[in-house]
Please model this.
Amino acid sequence: MLGGLGLVTGGVLALHRFVPNTPGRLGSLLETFLFWLGPFTVLLLLCAAARRSRTALIALLVPVVAWTASFGPLLLPGDPPGARELTVLQHNVADDNADPAGTARALADGGADLIALQELVDPALAVYRRELAPRYPYHSVHGTVGLWSRHPLGPTRALDIKPPDIAEPWRRALRAEVRTPYGEVAAYVVHLPSVRLGATGLASARRDESAALLGRILAAERSARVVLAGDLNGTVDDRGLAPLTSRLGAPERGLALSYPAALPVARIDQVLARGGTVARIRPLPGTGSDHLPVLARIALDMAPPTGG
Model:
């Protein structure tokens, strides 16, 4: 039995992309919790060792190899900071946060170059503006998302990623030009629609539609350096986010499980990049939100030549 479970687990890790996404977005649901097949495999290994089952131990090598290939690199130490590095802090502050001032101060203490926030609502928005201003003099807010920066901002604009079946006002994405010491970076701050897990599976249609709209915007992005930070309501393994992860690189090191804050089981708060490498991502201590903040180090590529 243990050997059979090992082969099934290994097959899931190796072939999860072939699991259909209907009914109930089964593929996306599986990919959301794919990481946890590793600890499950360890438990099976302990059971096999206790029973001295050589057959089970051999069979369990399949999921061990598959899991290590998929997630092992995330656990390795990252490279030391480089010369052209940008640090980005991503946090869904929660619209019911009872301590926006304390949250803002904790985020400022993170020392990031950029802070991307979601679920900014009045009157808490005024508190974030006031508390972050001393260390982050440049900022832009569109709808319920905002960007604070140590570096000057160029033009900013709201982005339309609203799913077609939402009738009410809904602004949850922006693009800003950040004038860093290493050259211009196009920064995106986004909040994709929530997903729900119920008896019929994973309800993620709206999120997937919003991700597809954002993917088209990214496809037309002309900047060589792009950073996207946001609550994507999905892991980077989730095929529903493929319009984004196919165009932007995910973190190379770090798990940074961010949700729910009380017992994090998945990283749905993401920092992705093009024209640079997200070298490492890590969680920060909890705030008054149901999400944990995550802090990413981005090693920027050499700026492309200008003129000619």
